[in-house]
Amino acid sequence: MKGAGEPAAGAGRAGRSAVEIRGLRKSFGTNEVLRGVDFHVAPGEVVCVIGPSGSGKSTLLRCVNLLEEPTAGTVRVTGVDLTGPEVDIDAARRRIGMVFQSFNLFPHLTALGNVVIAQRKVLRRARPEAERIARELLERVGLADKVGSYPAQLSGGQQQRVAIARALAMGPEVMLFDEPTSALDPELVGDVLGVMRGLAEAGMTMLVVTHEMSFAREVADRVVFMDGGVIVEEGPPSRVIDDPAHARTRAFLSRVLDPAAARIGDAAESDMFRAADRDA
Ligand SMILES: Nc1ncnc2c1ncn2[C@@H]1O[C@H](COP(=O)(O)OP(=O)(O)O)[C@@H](O)[C@H]1O
Ligand SMILES: [Mg+2]
Q1: How far is the CA of 11 from the centre of ligand 2 (A)?
Q2: So where does this one cross the membrane (predicted)?
């Protein structure tokens, strides 16, 4: 989180990165989706990943908690090499919370039940402790009065906040978010981003794929722009969003920041990208 005191680039100084990715490649058949990705997230840092659809953002996140097995390269989370032969994948995954676009709550469980269940099954917490933690977390995401509600009785934004509480209940050291607000009605986005902002302010290490540029601008320590399975550029949001170095980044941002203008310009898009590739 910006201004939290820790230097954003202080991974080396802190001794280890929260997330460290080296030479990451991932192919599906003959389709190489990640083509050599290197980057790190320092403890307490918030990194937003932006980029066009199909650029490999979700695959990158899924490789960080080994929902996908990398084709090559290493992924370390809090110093543990997830790609090493000896790794205890279940133990490693517990240190990583993941929030997806779709919330995937159990429909037959209340908000409380959804936050309790993995604590019981995975961490073997006693029910009273699991419920106490679940109540605290539901309060933290602004849902103290929805503890007994079922997913069908909750708005999309409320369901997503339950999903965030569920991930936090496992005590993760890193939280991954994959477009957590993309499926929400516009008026519900703010509450979810507000919860994420609160987490960032509390010092959580976060890797966030998002199209919410105002969130990235205000909350991210660093923004990473991906295209075609590589990192095209990264840096502070004021640099990458407001003064991008690469034409591909500029083209993407102009479409995200002004979708109406981009639609009018869609016919010219392929020309724009050909020009962008020449520039970059
Ligand atoms: N499980 C999979 N099997 C085959 N292809 C996949 C799979 N997951 C993703 N892809 C392909 O990888 C590319 C990047 O996808 P993705 O990581 O979801 O991009 P993004 O999140 O940036 O939109 C796409 O071409 C997609 O079709
Ligand atoms: Mg995606």
Answers
A1: 27
A2: none
Full-prediction pTM beyond 0.85?
yes
Residue type, 112: L
Which residues does 228 contact at the CB level (< 8 Å), separation at least 6?
Answer: 35, 55, 56
**pLDDT tens string 212-266:** 999 999 999 999 999 999 999 999 999 999 999 999 999 999 999 887 765 554 4
Binding site membership of 224 for ligand 1 (Cβ less than 6 Å): no
Taking the C-alpha atoms of residue 156 and residue 220, their distance in angstroms, rounded to an integer, is 24
Which of the listed residues 59, 65, 225, 232 should we mutate to test ligand 1's pocket, taking the one with most ligand atoms within 8 A of CB? 59
pLDDT tens column, 126-160: 999 999 999 999 999 999 999 999 999 999 999 99
3-state secondary structure the chain: CCCCCCCCCCCCCCCCCCEEEEEEEEEECCEEEEEEEEEEECCCCEEEEECCCCCCHHHHHHHHCCCCCCCEEEEEECCEECCCCCCCHHHHHHCEEEECCCCCCCCCCCHHHHHHHHHHHCCCCCHHHHHHHHHHHHHHCCCHHHCCCCHHHCCHHHHHHHHHHHHHCCCCCEEEEECCCCCCCHHHHHHHHHHHHHHHHCCCEEEEECCCHHHHHHHCCEEEEEECCEEEEEECHHHHCCCCCCHHHHHHHHHHHCHHHHHHCHHHHHHHHHHHHHHC
Tell me the C-alpha distance between 168 and 38, whole Å. Answer: 27
Residue 206 phi, psi (nearest 5): -135, 135
> Which bound ligand lies closest to the C-alpha atom of 178?
2
